[in-house]
Design goal:
The structure holds two protein chains of two kinds.
Chain A lengths: L9 H14 L25 E2 L2 E6 L2 E7 L4 E2 L16 H4 L10 H11 L8 H4 L14 H6 L2 E6 L9 E7 L18 E6 L7 H4 L6 E2 L4 E2 L23 H11 L9 H11 L2 E8 L3 E2 L11 H6 L28 H18 L2 E3 L14 E3 L1 H4 L13 E2 L23 E6 L12 E4 L5 H4 L8 E2 L21 H11 L6 H12 L2
Antiparallel strand pairs in A: 1-4, 2-3, 3-10, 5-7, 6-15, 8-9, 10-11, 12-13, 14-17, 15-16
Chain B lengths: L4 H9 L21 E6 L1 E4 L6 E6 L2 E7 L14 E9 L8 E14 L6 E2 L22 E5 L2 E5 L9 H16 L5 E5 L3 E3 L5 E3 L4 H15 L7 E4 L17 E6 L1
Parallel strand pairs in B: 2-7, 4-6, 10-13
Antiparallel strand pairs in B: 1-5, 2-3, 3-4, 5-6, 8-9, 9-14, 10-14, 11-12
Helix pairs in contact in B: 1-2, 2-3
């Protein structure tokens, strides 16, 4: 039996070994492993065996990671090996400790430990601009402060005649005006900055909704391998119709892959991604989240066992039932109080109605603007909290005036700002018209459609406590800022207690 | 985003059963005096249950419909845009307005920032009971004369496919697959509408062609061989009569 475990890099391994010896607990492949730190880092090329059940500490409790296929040896596995040319692996940006994404806390820790030499900070997308001096922290500020990687997309999109033109209004990092990487370079490119999405619980993410995107009345794109409809929910801008497409693109764009990714390696990557489940498993205030009679949504094993593509409804609530936590114990019991707060948060999520307004692809698809709805109407996929239909919507986080960025010029923002001007003959953005200021055009960079400007595919709700910050632009540093944004955006008028209930609810997912 | 699961299943399976629910003819028998066609800002009224949608014309408040899902026949308007209302005056008052039934509402494309009226809930003004989604394809979106003879309807200046249209297209593709050596003729029309004020609004010049092309492309995407499909679109807008104008904004699909 192997005695290898999750550790990589000289310092983190040394710390973990010291910790293991101190605790006199041999770390080995087994069905359960002791909780490891939030910053437990798996470096590309690590030689470790990941047990099927892992737990990682985070600021709110512990994340559970379940590999339904048993232990996995990272040695030689293409998800964990640097198969491209820049010493990165898939795991570099999809760390088990961070719910298969990567948190700002871990990113900063990597900078501190490696003085910025970790492949995570590769110039091509781990810096604000590849042309900046790469040894300086400031050149990686978006990654270090917001957890954002640069996504450079060709403009115009291949095969698309865009409905709008793009002007650069602000370019704090210089990358969009860069002679090599910018919009007027030999390969015209628009650079936006986005968080890595969770590479786990993917059966929920990839479950297709049918032949049509019922929101837009258009056919779904098809998985090029199977010819079957795609979920179109995999990436922030839905540009990958399958996990295979995503993996191949990531190998090329993020790992510097220059030769075709061998099919055998691709299949091993996909198999691994499809067997990993993450969810918070223990809460510092609420205790174990995976008790036999507890809420059926919680913990990675429950995420693994539930059916996909179940629509939120009275009998199939988005995150199942929390009724057993509503009862308060007679005496003051902090754990029971916390659990009751979670249950109230779930109730708010399901039943608190408010005016959802000016959200493209929600209010523009036949539901009315505004629509008096609940959180769970849009976040309607049971267990994941995504949208069963393709979930790209313009919530408003990236477009002026509802964006998360500084509202006035004197408060500097570190994100680029573009002005998009729609052709007179094209349908405008349904709620912003024909001249739109945005920090990330989202889906529109793929489709070239004005109606898609700022539309970002909603992400899943699992393992949130392990992977701050939130929103695709990393603008919400914690769950309170996330809830605050919705409260402001939709004038929800949540009380302080209601906000806390929602935060507690999100924290245990 | 919510949809009725039955509809979703129907779309997935392309259930031909829905074809059987042939809608009645859309031809209006409403006298012109009872017809209201106007462009205005929509108004949403909060209630204890579902929001109601209203529109004011010449000092009268009209009830258009209530919030529902995309499986419903009525797709509500959007604040921030004007709306073209085309309907026939009904009896009584609903949610504080005179009902227009049937009614077709088209969200006009350009922004109208002044259209922002939300009325608060008022004692004594309630929304009607929720309207269930129709059992078949909604007649305001689709007319099915036979499995191979289908007409699809559109909002003004729009090529948007409602859920009902997507189901009709799925059924059509299945019918084509079951038909020996068929030919599919797709004809897209644009149209004018005569407002109650006498003004005539005409759709964009390419609207009929855009609709026809989208329908044809979608059928091909659903597996219909492209070589079987012919596409036509008369350049002239269908003339307005102030009564039947919504039914001129259409695409006819004929499988022979």
């Amino acid at each position: 039996m192997s005695t290898r475990t999750v550790c990589a890099g000289v310092v983190s391994c040394a710390l973990m070994i010291a910790w293991a010896f101190a605790a006199l607990v041999p770390i080995r492949a087994q069905s359960e492993s002791p909780a490891q730190p939030h910053t437990a880092w798996i470096q590309a090329g690590s030689d470790v065996v990941l047990p099927p059940n892992m737990t990682f500490e985070n600021g709110l409790g512990r994340l559970g990671v379940l590999n339904t296929s048993g232990p996995i040896d990272t040695k030689g596995h293409p998800f964990f090996e640097a198969i491209g040319s820049n010493s990165r692996a898939c795991v570099t940006c999809h760390q088990p400790a961070n719910a298969m994404s990567v948190s700002v806390e871990s990113i900063r820790e990597r900078w501190r430990i490696t003085q910025g030499r970790d492949p995570l900070f590769a110039a091509i997308d781990g810096s604000n601009n590849p042309s900046l001096p790469q040894d300086q922290e400031a050149s990686h500020s978006l990654l270090l402060n917001r957890g954002l990687f640069r996504v450079g997309l060709p403009w115009p999109p291949p095969g698309v005649s865009p409905e709008f033109t793009i002007e650069i209004v602000r370019d704090p990092e210089g990358v969009n005006r860069d002679p090599v990487y910018g919009l007027t370079s030999a390969r015209p490119t628009v650079s936006v900055f986005r968080r890595p999405r969770v590479a786990a619980n993917l059966k929920y993410v990839t479950s297709p909704d049918g032949l049509f995107n019922v929101k837009l009345g258009v056919l779904m794109e098809k998985d090029p391998d199977t010819g079957l409809p795609s979920s179109m929910n995999i990436m922030a801008d839905a540009r990958a119709a399958s996990l295979a497409v995503q993996a191949e693109a990531a190998y090329r764009d993020h790992q510097g892959g220059t030769t075709p990714l061998p099919r055998t390696q691709l299949e091993r990557i996909l198999a691994f991604e499809n067997q990993i489940y993450v969810a918070q498993a223990w809460d510092a205030r609420g205790g174990s989240l995976v008790e036999p009679d507890g809420p059926a949504a919680l913990g990675p094993a429950n995420v693994a066992r539930h059916q996909v593509h179940v629509l939120n409804g009275p009998k199939t609530p988005a995150f199942h039932f929390f009724d057993m936590w509503l009862q308060r114990s007679p005496a003051a019991d902090p754990r029971a109080e916390f659990r009751a707060s979670v249950a109230r948060g779930n109730d708010l999520f399901l039943n608190r109605r408010f005016w959802v307004k000016d959200v493209a692809h929600i209010n523009s698809i036949g539901l009315g603007n505004p629509a008096k709805r609940t959180c769970a109407v849009c976040h309607n996929a049971q267990t994941s909290g995504m949208d069963l239909a393709p979930g790209w919507v313009d919530l408003g986080t990236t477009n002026y005036p509802t964006w998360t960025e500084a509202p006035v010029w004197s408060e500097a923002s570190d994100l680029p700002v573009f002005r998009l001007t729609c052709r007179p003959d094209a349908p405008p953005h349904p709620f912003l018209g024909r001249s739109i200021y945005t920090a990330d055009p989202g889906r529109a960079l793929v489709t070239g459609r004005c109606a898609d400007i700022g539309a970002i595919t909603m992400g899943q709700f699992r393992g949130l406590a392990a992977r701050a910050p939130y929103f695709s632009n990393g603008s919400a540093r914690d769950l309170r800022e996330l809830v605050d944004y919705y409260d402001r955006r939709f004038d929800m008028r949540l009380s302080g207690q209601e906000k806390q209930d929602l935060i507690n609810f999100l924290a245990v997912l | 985003m919510t949809t009725d699961r039955a509809w979703r299943t129907a779309a997935l399976l392309g259930l031909g059963a829905l074809v059987a629910s042939v809608s009645s003819a859309q031809q209006s028998t409403t006298p012109a005096s009872s017809r209201r066609q106007f462009v205005t800002c929509p108004i949403v009224r909060d209630t204890r249950t579902q929001p109601c949608w209203l529109a004011e014309y010449e000092g009268e408040l009209y009830y258009l419909g209530q919030q529902g899902g995309v499986a419903n026949d009525f797709y509500p308007p959007q604040l921030g845009h004007q709306v073209l209302v085309e309907g026939s005056v009904g009896q009584g008052r609903v949610c504080g307005g005179v009902p227009l039934q049937p009614v077709k509402v088209s969200v006009l494309r350009e922004l109208a920032p002044a259209c922002r009226t939300i009325l608060p809930a008022e004692d004594g003004i309630d929304a009607p009971p929720p309207v269930p989604a129709p059992r078949g394809l909604a007649p305001s979106w689709v007319r099915v004369d036979s499995a191979g003879e289908v007409t699809l309807y559109f909002d003004f200046d729009s090529d948007f496919f409602s859920l009902h249209v997507t189901i009709a297209l799925t059924n059509l593709a299945k019918h084509v697959a079951d038909s020996p050596a068929p030919h599919i003729a797709v004809t897209g029309f644009r149209a004018a509408t005569r407002l109650s004020s006498g003004q005539v609004l005409t759709e964009r010049a390419d609207m009929g062609a855009v609709r026809a092309r989208r329908v044809a492309d979608t059928l091909v995407g659903l597996g219909v061989p492209a070589g079987l499909v012919t596409v036509n679109s008369p350049a002239a807008a269908q003339p307005a009569d102030g009564l039947n104008d919504p039914w001129n904004r259409r695409v006819e699909v004929r499988v022979r």
